[in-house]
Design goal:
The complex is a heterodimer of chains A (about 100) and B (about 210).
Chain A lengths: L2 H10 L5 E6 L4 E9 L5 E8 L10 E7 L4 E5 L7 H14 L1
Antiparallel strand pairs in A: 1-2, 1-5, 2-3, 3-4
Chain B lengths: L5 E2 L21 E6 L1 E5 L8 E6 L2 E6 L6 E5 L3 E7 L9 E6 L26 E6 L5 H13 L26 H20 L6 H8 L4
């Protein structure tokens, strides 16, 4: 199972949770994870911009589609993360890949 | 492939109609929406115009000026959304962010406003305002579908996954050799911790050799 596939499966389990997506252009958007696809494109609902001073025009949008290739980080809710599981899976993946 | 927004002037026939698409590339027209105004960055809206969504790009052609048109590849559309917040923009619209070439000197979201000239390569925000706002959800879904058709070209699995486990690894050329040893040291540390041996200076020295 490739690494992208790993994260795809991981993010699918987070659907419905609040996440913050930080893009490579420094924009950070918070919203409910609606769906994710195999390219790690992300759809968020009830989104709002984290730093409104930088991007005042965006403010709040109901639905948002973010291209996977422009995502820098996805900040996850702590209760949504099983660190040990993720750690083991990625380590296994790195060795096997 | 051009990153960002660009001028688009190739029209079929006598110039009144549809944009010329690259059929050899498999490009197909997915949706046409008339009565759409386009807003580039902070510039005033341009209208009337027609929006053409193909499998590869978004094209807007002016209805009155046959030499005016803009296009952007889906590869350059970083995000898109339905904007209904009147504080963000007076009319409901599709809001998009466009990836541009790296240009650190420029401020985000702005274009050359000082002299009013439109520099397409610097446009990072584009709004498409349909005269029929009930079409917004359809347009949003169309954008989603076409974006999914355009993943990054080199998105295939890489031969090597260059995963970093520690800052030290960044400088180490022999990471492939080092990694199993580092892993072992991490496990050793966990074991020693579990049996309270980590406080033993001997064990600590041993582990320090592996930067654990």
């Amino acid at each position: 199972m490739g690494l992208v596939q790993l994260f795809f499966s991981y993010f699918k389990d987070l659907v419905g949770r609040e996440v913050t997506v930080e893009l490579k252009n420094d924009l950070a958007i918070r919203g409910t994870l609606h769906s994710v696809d195999q390219y790690l494109n992300i759809k968020l609902e009830n989104t709002r911009v984290v730093d409104q001073d930088k991007y005042p025009h965006m403010l709040s949008v109901r639905n948002c589609f973010i291209r996977g290739s422009v995502v820098r980080y996805v900040q996850l809710p702590p209760e949504g993360v099983d660190i040990e599981l993720l750690h083991d899976a990625t380590r296994r993946e790195a060795r096997g890949g | 492939m051009v990153v960002g927004l660009r001028n688009f002037t190739e029209r079929v026939g006598d110039g009144a109609g549809q944009p010329v698409l690259n059929a050899d590339n498999g490009e197909e027209l997915m949706h046409v929406e008339s009565g759409v105004a386009i807003v580039l960055g902070n510039h005033p809206p341009e209208s009337p115009g027609t929006l053409f969504i193909s499998t590869k790009q978004v094209i807007w052609l002016s209805d009155v000026d046959r030499a005016k048109g803009y296009a952007v590849d889906f590869l350059s559309v970083s995000l898109h959304a339905v904007s209904r917040d009147p504080e963000a923009y007076s009319s409901p619209c599709i809001y998009t962010q466009i990836e541009t070439e790296e240009n650190d000197a420029d401020s985000e979201g702005s274009d050359s406003e000082c002299d009013g000239t439109l520099d397409l390569s610097k446009i990072t925000e584009m709004r498409l305002v349909p005269s029929d706002p009930s079409q917004l959800e359809t347009l949003f879904e169309m954008f989603c579908g076409c974006a999914e058709l355009n993943p990054e070209p080199n998105d295939e699995e890489e031969e090597e996954h260059n995963w970093i486990f520690s800052a030290d690894q960044m400088e180490d050329d022999a990471t492939d050799l080092y990694r199993p040893i580092q892993d072992l040291a991490v496990y050793a540390k966990e074991y020693f911790l579990s049996i309270d041996l980590y406080k033993d200076p001997t064990a600590e020295n041993f582990l320090n050799e592996f930067n654990v």
